[in-house]
Specification:
Structural class: alpha+beta
Strand content: 35-45%
Distance between the termini: 25 Å
Shape: globular
Helix content: 10-25%
Low-confidence stretches: none
Order of helices and strands: EHEEEEH
Largest sheet: 5 strands, antiparallel
Radius of gyration: 14 Å
Mean pLDDT: 90
Number of strands: 5
Strand order of the largest sheet: 1-5-4-3-2
Length: 105
Amino acid sequence: MVYKSGRDVGSVRFRVGVIRAKLSVEAPGARFAEREVKIRGAVEARLLETSFTENGEPARQVDVVIGTTAGPQYAIRYGAAQNAFDQAGVARMLATAVVAAPEGT
């Protein structure tokens, strides 16, 4: 899923913190790993990887929060059961994601 937000939604770090807080409530005991990532055309981007249990099964989720110079802001979410999680797909997503201005701007 890709989410698009307006300009005034807070910094990338703030937005990652909001996602982390929400997931902490929704999935008590979740484990988090966070790091900066490079997204072409972005001013800043961070990846939040969450491991948790859903319906008794291990699962993983990745949220990539992307900041741009003038807005909008973006977030990409991918999640799956642990045994179906495509880590190579996450790597491809990060390597091919590009923030570009819409035509005519």
